[in-house]
């Protein structure tokens, strides 16, 4: 049996969906909660196989409840079941650790399928949510697009083989400031050392080769 915790502040929704789910041979709604705070307590106490989580609730919303549950129990499998598809709900819920995201307009049979899939380790997302994620990935800036003008100057000097002290002297900045810029460049480019940063810079035509 797949043990389910159902969290929703609308009693009629819980009654309707729970009745259908409990009639399934492989699903057992072992507990219900009507707010996020209670959901966190129950989730960490009974450790259900799958949690159905509403988003907008009293006491604590579903996003914060999801975050707290996942932080304390990383293996938790949480399906968001909500009426909202706006960005300020979708992305925070997924970033908080939700495994799947469904709408309340879904049929009870579709929710049951999502429970089974999530239990098996899959992610079930509404087509609109998948579209949002794909669009966001396409719009995600490239690492080097996050560099400031000053950091680009520092990167050019790094490519010329300048030391931190030489960079500081040439740009008329403190050595400590130069070190901060170099560290920031490595972080933004997601590389481990100066050599990798310079290779990245040349591969993306970010710097000019020093003339002989």
From TrEMBL:
<dbReference type="GO" id="GO:0006355">
    <property type="term" value="P:regulation of DNA-templated transcription"/>
</dbReference>
<dbReference type="InterPro" id="IPR011006">
    <property type="entry name" value="CheY-like_superfamily"/>
</dbReference>
<feature type="domain" description="HTH luxR-type">
    <location>
        <begin position="140"/>
        <end position="205"/>
    </location>
</feature>
<dbReference type="Pfam" id="PF00072">
    <property type="entry name" value="Response_reg"/>
</dbReference>
<dbReference type="GO" id="GO:0005737">
    <property type="term" value="C:cytoplasm"/>
</dbReference>
<dbReference type="Pfam" id="PF00196">
    <property type="entry name" value="GerE"/>
</dbReference>
<dbReference type="GO" id="GO:0000160">
    <property type="term" value="P:phosphorelay signal transduction system"/>
</dbReference>
<dbReference type="InterPro" id="IPR001789">
    <property type="entry name" value="Sig_transdc_resp-reg_receiver"/>
</dbReference>
<keyword id="KW-0804">Transcription</keyword>
<protein>
    <submittedName>
        <fullName>DNA-binding response regulator</fullName>
    </submittedName>
</protein>
<feature type="modified residue" description="4-aspartylphosphate">
    <location>
        <position position="54"/>
    </location>
</feature>
<feature type="domain" description="Response regulatory">
    <location>
        <begin position="3"/>
        <end position="119"/>
    </location>
</feature>
<keyword id="KW-0597">Phosphoprotein</keyword>
<dbReference type="InterPro" id="IPR000792">
    <property type="entry name" value="Tscrpt_reg_LuxR_C"/>
</dbReference>
<keyword id="KW-0805">Transcription regulation</keyword>
<dbReference type="InterPro" id="IPR039420">
    <property type="entry name" value="WalR-like"/>
</dbReference>
<keyword id="KW-0238">DNA-binding</keyword>
<dbReference type="InterPro" id="IPR016032">
    <property type="entry name" value="Sig_transdc_resp-reg_C-effctor"/>
</dbReference>
<dbReference type="InterPro" id="IPR058245">
    <property type="entry name" value="NreC/VraR/RcsB-like_REC"/>
</dbReference>
<dbReference type="GO" id="GO:0003677">
    <property type="term" value="F:DNA binding"/>
</dbReference>
